[in-house]
Specification:
87% of the residues lie in helices and 0% in strands. By secondary structure, it is an all-alpha fold.
Length: 128
């Protein structure tokens, strides 16, 4: 079950790298505007915030990825702690998103379901 959890956490990390790309490099592109439901003017006004948020998503992905590597190379305690911190923060961010704006349920589900399943599987894998 630990391997399943690490795989799910890895997928979640990749999703967050993609979100980093959207928020930090493609923020005002037509396709990104459609994904986030914004006008070009709104995106331009929010560009600095999006850049910061994009890097936050990248850092969560990095922490999770480093945790996966540590776990895979035998440092299970350190690796699992990093995976749980990174993926757990992804879940928490998704919860904040849906709590703050109910219309963002779909985005929160896309952002938070896979890391939630990964966290659960890692915990089960560590306790079995």
């Amino acid at each position: 079950m630990l391997i399943v959890g690490l795989a799910l956490a890895g997928i979640a990390a990749l999703v967050h790298v993609y979100i980093f790309y959207l928020e930090s490099f493609a923020w005002t592109d037509r396709k990104t505007l459609a994904v986030f439901g914004m006008t070009a003017e709104q995106a331009e006004a929010m560009r600095p915030l999006a850049l910061n948020q994009g890097f936050y998503n990248l850092f969560l992905a990095i922490v999770t990825g480093v945790g996966i590597v540590f776990t895979a190379t035998g440092s299970t305690a350190v690796g699992a702690a990093l995976v749980l911190a990174g993926a757990g923060s992804m879940v928490a961010a998704a919860a904040v998103l849906v709590i703050s704006d109910r219309t963002k349920r779909g985005a929160a589900l896309k952002q938070g379901l896979v890391p939630l399943l990964g966290v659960a599987a890692v915990i089960v894998g560590l306790t079995v």
